[in-house]
Amino acid sequence: MGENLIQELAAAFTRFPGVGPRQAKRFVYFLLKSPPTNTERLARLIDELRRKISQCGDCRRFVDTVELQAKQCALCRHERRDHSLLLVVEKDIDVNQIERAGSYEGRYFVLGGLVPLLEDEPDKRIRLTELKKYLDRHEIKELIVALTANAEGDNTAEYLQQTLKKYEADGLVVTVLGRGLSSGIELEYSDPDTIKHALSGRIKIS
User: Coiled coil located at which positions (predicted)?
Assistant: First the structure.
């Protein structure tokens, strides 16, 4: 029974990004050797995560529940931001990096993933339905696709452009970041200057 529990917990850890079976086992044995107060605190924090963190109804970021007003986070409510600009990123942490660069004043939308090449059901990989609802609710003039500069990121950008043609016909301009970003480097690992150059050099998807 005990060995099965170790295997089950290790299998759960392998679902974390970048964690393989060997590293997952190390996590389990680390927890077993830790003082009970540490594991109890970890269990409490995981439980509180679901109860105290909510998703913004607009940008889909995860934020502290107390920050939400009318299901909007502070960034989405900010009156001085340019509400005609929408920057689409893969992950919540990408928003943090772009905010740190200090060169973007519009709003955000978190896709929640990328579309792999040859994917049969791309809609299940990203929040496309939610993005369309966002565009239906708000008057967006430019949608900036800011994804990882790799095959999956390029494929996702192309898929978005194809599926948003209805909005382009109504005047929406879809652009992508300029290639200041190194190929294969995720946005979260890019430095502020690189992000600034990529934003200023963005180009329209034809």
Answer: none
Which domains occur in the chain, in start order? 2-51 (1.10.8.420), 81-204 (3.40.1360.10)
d(CA 176, CA 202): 5
Residue whose C-alpha is closest to residue 178's, from 146, 154, 136, 131: 146
Task: Encode pLDDT of 57-97 as tens digits.
Answer: 999 999 999 888 888 999 999 989 999 999 999 999 999 99
Q: In a 3-state reduction of DSSP, which class is residue 132?
A: helix
Cα distance between residue 195 and residue 138, in whole Å = 25
Cα(103)–Cα(193) distance, rounded to whole angstroms? Answer: 9
Contact, 181 vs 149, CB < 8 A? yes
**What count of other Cβ atoms lies within 10 Å of the Cβ of residue 88?**
24
Q: Are 165 and 195 in contact (CB under 8 A)?
A: no
pLDDT at 206: 61
- State the Cα–Cα distance between residues 162 and 174, nearest whole angstrom: 10
Give the integer Cα–Cα distance in Å for 169 and 118: 27
Over residues 117-158, the pLDDT tens digits come to: 888 888 889 999 999 999 999 999 999 999 988 889 889 999
